[in-house]
Automatic annotation (TrEMBL):
PANTHER family: DIPEPTIDASE, MICROSOMAL DIPEPTIDASE. GO terms for biological process: proteolysis. Pfam families: Peptidase_M19. It comes from Planococcus halocryophilus. One of its GO terms (molecular function) is metallodipeptidase activity. This is Diguanylate cyclase. Coiled coil: none annotated.
């Protein structure tokens, strides 16, 4: 079965390895490096048809270096993921997904946190031109656009953040709420035409600030937004680094109970997590999730979770 995965951090791993190579480290090979949960061979083995690749900049980096870090990751997207793998095809607009050949995998470029462009909308427009199709305004920290879930102030969007959402709407780009403060989330709900939670679970089942509460979940479904379940055990079972596939399915059950059977997808966070769901350690093991889902849901519903819901909710469709 085809899989659409709306979040991974392979670009960050590739960048850090390249920087470390300057000090006698080793470069990672996207084709087959075992250090990458989402290397090409594993994507193929797991049936992944579309993989989102996030640009993520550590908040500790100085502000005047963050744009350079973003450009380095984008360069690796073009050179290592696309350039060295002819079967990886850049999804530059949402209709490109429909033209993928049977043996091709679509690659979508995303941004996790607006820190990369600061308050420079010219840089944001450049990101659109380079193919970024989903933008999360924050990671866990606050920035010039909004507060993240890790900031106790819990402020909403700034005027700049609201302008970014409007530009996302204009360019048919997702606005990702997965790391936003609660007040920021509600500001996005008022403004965004294309909201997505690229990697979040249900807070009612696991009381973690990275998860969405029931009110937020219902609002996402009312806005025709996608919520993509994340594989990080901390967001599945509270205060635990262990989780099973049935534990993850409990979150899918909860979303369905709130009316979201047609709004659920997958956002693994592979290459960005330090512990794993049992039997779901990298992209090659997606069939284990599909097999377990088929015990609980109809084939049509499982296809929806895997890829079809996304096709129906992508911007402009």
């Amino acid at each position: 079965m085809k899989i659409f995965d709306t979040h991974c951090d392979a670009l960050l791993k590739l960048q850090m390895a390249k920087r470390n190579a300057l000090f006698h480290g080793e470069l990672l090979n996207f084709q087959q490096s075992k250090e990458l949960d989402t290397n090409f061979e594993r994507l193929q083995a797991g049936g992944v048809k579309v993989q989102f690749f996030a640009i993520f900049i550590h908040p500790e980096f100085p502000s005047d270096e963050k744009w350079q870090h973003a450009l380095e990751q984008i360069d690796l997207f073009y050179s290592e993921i696309l350039g060295n793998n002819p079967l990886m095809k850049h999804i530059k607009n949402w209709k490109d997904i429909d033209s993928l050949k049977p043996d091709e995998i679509g690659a979508v470029l995303t941004l996790e946190g607006a820190d990369a462009f600061g308050n420079d909308l010219m840089k944001l427009r450049q990101l659109y031109r380079l193919g970024v199709l989903s933008i999360g305004l924050t990671w866990n920290n606050a920035n010039l656009c909004a507060d993240g879930v890790g900031d106790p102030r819990d402020a909403g969007l700034t005027l700049l953040g609201k302008e970014v959402v409007r530009l996302n709407n204009e360019h048919h780009v997702f606005t990702d709420v997965s790391h936003l403060s609660i007040n920021g989330f509600w500001d996005v709900m008022e403004l965004a035409k294309f909201p997505i939670a690229s990697h979040s679970n249900a807070r009612a089942l696991c009381d973690h600030p990275r998860n969405l509460n029931d009110q937020q979940i219902k609002a996402m479904f009312e806005k025709s937004g996608m919520i993509d379940v994340v594989f990080c055990p901390d967001f599945i079972n509270k205060d635990s680094e262990q989780a099973t596939i049935p534990d993850l399915i409990r979150h899918i059950d909860h979303f369905c109970a709130l009316g979201g059977v047609n709004n659920i997808g997958i956002g693994s966070d592979f290459d960005g997590i330090s512990s794993y769901i049992t039997d779901l350690n990298n992209a090659s093991e997606f069939p284990n999730l599909i097999n377990e889902l088929q015990k609980h849901y109809s084939e049509a519903e499982v296809e929806g979770f895997a890829y079809r819901n996304f096709l129906e909710h992508r911007p402009g469709m």
